[in-house]
Amino acid sequence: MSSPAVAAHQFSEDQAEAWDRVAEMLLGAGIDIEEGGLTPDAPGKASVLALTGKAGSGKTMLLAGLTRALTEAGVDIVSGDYEGKRRKDRRTLAVLAPTNKAASVLRSRGVPATTIHRILYTPVYDPEYEKIAEWLAGSGDRPSVEGLTDQALDRAKAFYEQVKSIPGALAAAGLRGSDFILGWKRREDPLDVGFVDEASMLDERQFEDLREIFPTLVLFGDPAQLAPVGQSGEMVFDKLPSGRRLHLHRVHRQAEDNPILDLAHALGDEALQFETFEQMVADAARRDDRVVWSERVDAGLMARSPALVWRNQTRVRLIQAFRAAYGAPADALLPGEPLICDGIELPLKHRKKRIDLEARGLIKGAQVIYLGPGNKPGFSRLHVMGAEDPRVSAASIIKIELPDEEEPFIPYAARMGAAFLHGAAVTIHKAQGSQWEEVQVFAPDLFVAARTGRSEAGIPLWKRLAYVAITRAEKRLHWVVRNRLARPALPLTTDDLPRSAAPLSLDATDAEV
Predict the structure, then answer these.
(1) What are the distances in angstroms from CA 211 to CA 16, 77, 268, 333?
(2) Is 71 helix (H, G, I), strand (E, B) or coil?
(3) What distance in Å separates the CA atoms of residue 122 and residue 189, rounded to the nearest whole number?
(4) pTM exceeds 0.70, yes or no
(5) What SS3 class is residue 358?
(6) Could you report the per-residue pLDDT of 459-499, keeping only the tens digit for each?
(7) DSSP state of 483
């Protein structure tokens, strides 16, 4: 079976088979992507399908093509920033990723992705401003709102016609997120179709949450990556029946071979030893500048692209070297220092505040740049990397770990709020789902992993670590072979960070969370 959307791509045989399987699944749910028709409230059974493949096998191309086909068939994309009133004739799709960074990678490729948290929890709009949202979304008349001029409404309309973001349009009208969003609530109504990228990162709880929301769920994942901690090397799609899993075997190349992908796929050789692989890296570096054999970690790169390590002690020592190289004081952060969200430290009675922070992108593993102190003690102004609305100000607990010290130093601490670790270096586990243009892999750690002889799901651990680390690099891979740090050529800055047109933030108000 072929459709215009398929014809637009040069699909391989296994991709075409996967397309047909998804098309058949969607047809059972009342969505015909071949002929472009919808059947409201089709009584299809709940169904899950996993499409797996290694880096370069075309999973993202397939996801993007399916998303376009669903949109052309009349399915509405749900982004998580606003939803209109539920209609019987409405069919919905959400494209999801576990982290802001993973979602931003998809958005950079034209796929309107959001995070799982932004779909699990939906915003509660002020009723007055919801009239504007309904008008912008095409389900209401032009409103008259006290305090907003016709010119402000025109600006909102013009913005929305260019960028389909309700918060962005309201910001263009001069409103802040705290003006029109009263809070966040757990989703009550199910959606129709969910596409989940980086599904290897899902844990059992997230998977069950998604199955409650989406009767039709398609998982896109890489079985060669690292499984979530605590799942014994098994991923959620491994437990699906074999008939619900399709694997993309063919690796698609660009016009010129990609040396980074070549190295990643070389790790599939069962006989390959670490020393032989490292020689392959050296050979690739001599042939192609997209692979760099480096004697030192580059501190300048660490400010925006963390050095990837295996051992925690390596991570802490590299962070301390990074801070020393920039002359950071022991008792404070410099604007521009990178952080990693380590979770939300709030008691259960503050569940609504937790949802508020998570909805703004402060979920575990989120990459953040410190901008400066907030207007209240314990608050920090932050830029959430990859978030659609990145600037926030929130109660923060920032921990700077020290070598050979059990307790971290805490330069900023609210009573409760979002907790952060330094982000100049991260473990390869935490890097899953993210990509950067340039990535530094700390090879001495992988050598140690190889020497331990440890395996995960029958594969040597060092190979899994190397595969994940290498495939985080979009354009250039730096293979660091010495425990040394090159000093930065320029001071830290925040000038390189884009400002959002729609700050859904606590930035102006520092409302306590």
Answers:
(1) 26, 18, 32, 41
(2) helix
(3) 10
(4) yes
(5) helix
(6) 899 999 999 999 999 999 999 999 999 989 999 999 999 86
(7) S
